[in-house]
Design a protein that fits this description.
With about 375 residues, this protein is α+β, with helices and mostly antiparallel strands. Helices cover about 30% and strands about 40% of the residues. The relative contact order is 0.18. Residues about 1-15, about 30-35 and about 40 have low confidence and may be disordered.
Length: about 375
């Protein structure tokens, strides 16, 4: 029994030793695996941090540019007048149509003058009658005055002739005024153009019976035009009369037209918070037409040196604007203050100098100090 027990005890001890040795080896291997795994992860993280971000860049430039404001507007006639009749009657002739060019004082329509000619003749006859009565009253006054001096007529008789002379003089003046009025009305049977221009609209036809105030035609002046457009409230402080404008119209692609600011309206439009501005445009050749839609550039000052970058380089974060510059092989975040927009470029008023390299593509993936690779 004792021999069997010792035999069993020896085998168990040997097994325990072997188990402990295996456990130790397994622990060593596990630790090595963990160390290798952690080391690999650190190497991978380090490699990920140093991975370069591909970007495209542009060199900031200093350009001599004129500050301006952009807007859209509409061309209008410089002047427009509605020609109306001052008389009642039948329209005998009308000498113009829509689009006709007229000169100052040109006859554009005539009213049948028969009634007005007869009125002149009637007023002339009355004038002659009153003049004859006045001449007779003057002769009688002279006779009565001589007799009154010799006391051959009473004062009452003399006063009567004096009163009659005054009445006939008044009749003559009224007759003369009536004749002048009749002649004036006769002249108004011919209707003249009050200004040079073009006929925009015609409302009547020969044979129509028209009354005083009837709309006949409208005439617009087109050798000069007005260009009306609005300027936002933030730019109003830079506006002045006489500033230059350049504008384009769809009818003449690639062609620029010019004008000067003539009128700044006294108050802003409340709904749009903008100021209405009118410019004067010389319409040489008559190629521009009232009603054309225009794209306007208003220059608000002389040319000045301005640092500009492409608009695509800018990033907006609430009220701040930033961009990324490249210094060496690293991204540098810069807060900037922007100015005016010049086509596809933006003025940088503060925060960037000319010749600095800025990122125009890929900046959304950048942070301060990130490694960058400039794509060529």
């Amino acid at each position: 029994m004792l021999g069997r027990t010792s035999s069993l005890t020896g085998e168990n001890g040997s097994n325990r030793c072997r188990f402990r040795a295996g456990a130790l080896i397994a622990a060593i291997l596990l630790c090595a695996a963990l160390f290798v795994n952690v080391g690999c992860k650190k190497q991978e993280q380090k490699a990920a941090k140093e991975r370069a971000v591909n970007v495209r860049v542009w060199t900031a430039e200093s350009r001599s540019l004129r500050p301006f404001v952009e807007s859209v507007g509409t061309l209008k006639p410089y002047d427009e007048v509605v020609v109306s009749s001052e008389l009642d009657g039948i329209l005998k002739t009308i000498h113009v149509d829509e689009g006709s060019t007229v000169t100052l004082g040109q006859v554009i329509a005539e009213i049948k003058e028969t009634d007005y000619q007869l009125a002149v003749e009637q007023a002339t006859a009355i004038m002659k009658q009153t003049e004859a009565a006045l001449a007779n009253a003057k002769l009688e006054h002279q006779r009565k005055e001589a007799l009154y001096r010799e006391e051959l007529v009473t004062k009452q008789q003399f006063d009567d002739i004096v009163a009659r002379l005054a009445l006939t003089q008044g009749d003559v003046e009224r007759a003369k005024a009536g004749l002048d009025l009749a002649k004036e009305r006769l002249t108004k049977t011919k209707i003249f153009a009050p200004m040079a221009g073009s006929v925009k609209e015609k409302k009547v036809t020969a044979g129509d019976y028209i009354r005083n105030g009837t709309f006949l035609v409208s005439i617009i002046r087109t050798d000069l035009l007005k260009l009306a457009f609005s300027v936002p409230e933030k730019d109003v402080g830079s506006l002045r009369e006489g500033q230059d404008i350049v504008f384009t119209v769809d009818s003449f692609p690639g062609r620029e037209f010019r004008g000067k600011v003539k009128t700044l309206y006294p108050s802003l439009e409340e709904k749009t918070r903008s100021l209405l501005v009118e410019a004067q445009v010389l319409n040489q050749g008559g190629s521009l037409k009232p009603g054309f839609f225009t794209r306007v550039t208003l220059y608000t000052g002389p040319a000045k040196d301005t640092v500009v970058v492409p608009i695509t380089a800018l990033l907006y974060d609430n009220s701040t604007t930033k961009l990324f510059a490249v210094e060496g092989d690293r991204a540098k975040e810069k807060m900037v203050k922007i100015g005016r927009k010049y086509g596809e470029f933006m003025e940088i008023a503060e925060g960037l100098k000319a010749k600095e390299t800025v990122v125009t593509v890929g900046q959304n993936n950048l942070m301060e100090g990130v490694l960058v690779n400039v794509a060529r």
